[in-house]
Design brief:
Length: about 600
């Protein structure tokens, strides 16, 4: 549904369709981490039991929390698609209140078994909330708001994680009243979250007639097959899961890195977590600014480059540190040699935010609404598997004698390889990155009338310029992928031809030169339109011919005129793209199309 425009992503916090949802998930994420960290500290330092060694407490708690993601994500995705989403949110928050009441009893009586059970139940709570968290946003926000909304959620989640960990550590350490205070804080946050959930607007079911498959194994496999139905979406799921692998390696090693490499105490390890969280939050918020308030996956390669560069530099910075005795935060910050480490970590996590937010938005907007939540559930399953794999692999490397900086280096180099492989499999990321660089860094690019670009459905775009750079600029202006109809000579260029082939451009051979190739190109173009995608041509006559072919095939496809002023071969010059109002396909004749293009002159 249409929503009034907003000046920036923070303005969403004043709107009922977003603010109650944001603060509900913020309270839930904070509560998860307050509970888990307080419990970990409790069994490590205060409430030790023989059957749970302190050295294994964190591992067991983490494993119990993540287990429901593997067992129940598929079911959670089905329920989210079948039921009204706000109803699910309120049920989950009611469940959280019950779990935290039980956990409160566990804290006050010192029952480790009860708290372990509550850890598993909080994992169930988070598993049920996960698909709703990302399936709600596309129903509440427009395409222009989706990147900013995801950025706010990502930022809020990491801030909540940080505050929850800090609060859990501080409250449980209070003399005599620590466990009781934690119990009250957890229950209080659960009650606040439930109160906020009452104000979330309804989000109707997208597949109310769905038959629930309660078998988690077969449904997990079916969800993965659903995701694989859209190869761009599926490979984006793998890309996000890799980001969780990457982040989990760093987060898990902060205590050892702080103690053994930086010679810092526990507070220095906490500082690293703060820096990482601030970086992720900042990168997430920057996505809307850098994307012209569209879903811009061109930021993903930029994020991947930054993640690898600063992971490698973090290894270098760690090796140049002078020997030192153990120090606190003040002494650590006072040494200039440590500033580079902090800056590397900040920028590494900032670029991770740039990497992840557009991928989440892409999955939301490209998934079919009827099974969007199940796609997100598949993503949660893959995320859990990749995080488990990161723990196993990092543990194996450390067990083989690798140092923590060497593990960071290997992860950064592996990120470059994995990201490069994903971008070759899904060249749209690479092409949109080139388009983003061209439109944001090389030229002063301005778009007017972009509201006329169709957000859904097929259309023929007719533009007055046809260079390779022009096509990249058109790509930058549209949040949707564009299939270009080009002259065969362009495909013979070694570099530009390779890139155009990656974009699945269609070579339109003149009918007089090769009637069969001409017909095959028209069939390919019609297939693009039948798929509901955008098709761009540089020649008025080509556009008219394709519209005529579409009408003959029973397709009602509009024509959108576009004009580029001061063409892209003017280095570092001002380039303006004007988008005219769409013309109905049946009414688009040579005269009307020429008039529409002429009206776009500056």
């Amino acid at each position: 549904m249409p929503h009034p425009d907003h000046p920036n992503q923070f303005a969403l916090l004043r709107q009922r369709r977003f603010a109650p949802f944001f603060w509900t998930q913020f309270a839930g994420a904070a509560n998860d981490n307050l509970f888990k960290f307080a419990f970990t500290v409790l069994v490590t330092y205060q409430l030790q039991v023989a059957w749970l060694p302190a050295s294994l407490a964190g591992l067991v708690i983490g494993a119990l929390f993540i287990l429901p993601f593997l067992l129940l994500s598929a079911t959670a995705g089905q329920l989210t698609d079948k039921l009204e989403k706000t109803r699910i949110i309120r049920f989950v928050k009611n469940l959280e209140i019950a779990i935290m009441a039980l956990a409160g009893w566990g804290f006050m009586t010192g029952s480790v078994a009860v708290l372990l059970g509550c850890t598993f139940l909080m994992g169930v709570h988070s598993t049920l909330f996960g698909p709703v968290k990302f399936a709600y946003l596309p129903q509440a926000l427009s395409e222009r708001e989706l990147t900013g909304g995801n950025g706010m959620i990502e930022m809020g989640t990491f801030v909540a994680i940080l505050l929850g960990n800090v609060a859990g550590g501080l409250l449980v350490a209070l003399p005599n009243i620590g466990p009781t205070t934690v119990a009250l804080a957890c229950l209080g946050l659960a009650l606040v979250g439930r109160g906020l959930a009452q104000f979330i607007p309804a989000a109707p079911a997208t597949d109310p007639h769905l038959h629930i498959n309660w078998n988690p194994i077969s449904e997990t496999w079916r969800n993965l097959k659903l995701a694989h139905g859209n190869i761009v979406v599926f490979r984006s799921l793998l890309g996000i899961s890799w980001m969780w692998f990457f982040g989990a390696v760093f987060l898990a090693q902060f205590p050892s890195f702080a103690r053994d490499v930086l010679h810092g105490d526990a507070h220095v390890a906490s500082l690293l977590l703060v820096v990482f969280s601030v970086g992720i939050g900042t990168g997430s918020l920057l996505c809307e600014v850098l994307s012209r308030r569209h879903v811009e996956i061109g930021l993903v390669p930029l994020g991947a480059i930054g993640m690898s560069v600063f992971a490698v530099d973090l290894y270098s910075a760690a090796h140049s540190l002078p020997p030192a005795a153990q120090m606190g935060v003040a002494a650590f910050i006072a040494q200039p040699a440590h500033w580079r480490v902090v800056l590397d970590l900040l920028l590494l996590s900032l670029f991770a935010g740039l990497y992840s937010v557009p991928m989440y938005a892409l999955i939301q907007i490209r998934s079919q609404p009827t099974h969007r939540a199940r796609i997100i559930a598949a993503n949660n399953i893959l995320n859990a598997l990749f995080m488990i794999a990161s723990s196993v692999l990092a543990g194996a490397l450390l067990g083989a004698g690798w140092t923590v900086p060497e593990v960071f280096l290997a992860t950064g180099l592996a990120n470059a390889v994995v990201a490069g492989y994903i971008f070759l499999l899904v060249p749209e990321y690479l092409l949109r990155f080139m388009a983003w660089v061209l439109s944001r860094l090389v030229y002063h690019f301005k778009v007017t009338g972009d509201e006329h670009l169709p957000t859904t459905g097929a259309a023929v775009l007719v533009c007055n310029h046809a260079s390779f750079a022009d096509r990249l600029l058109l790509m930058a202006a549209s949040p949707r992928p564009i299939c270009f109809v080009v002259e065969p000579a362009l495909l013979r260029h070694p570099i530009r031809g390779w890139l155009l082939r990656l974009s699945k451009a269609i070579a339109l051979v003149p009918e007089s030169h090769n009637p069969l190739a001409h017909q095959q190109a028209q069939v390919a173009a019609l297939q693009v339109l039948r798929g509901g995608d955008l098709l761009a041509v540089a020649c008025e006559q080509d556009g008219l011919d394709l519209l005529a072919q579409a009408r003959a095939a029973g397709l009602d496809v509009p024509c959108v005129p576009l004009a580029l002023h001061q063409p892209a071969h003017t280095a570092w010059g001002r380039v303006q793209l004007q988008v005219g109002a769409a013309l109905a396909g049946a009414d688009c004749n040579p005269q009307r199309l020429r008039q529409a293009l002429a009206a776009l002159r500056p």
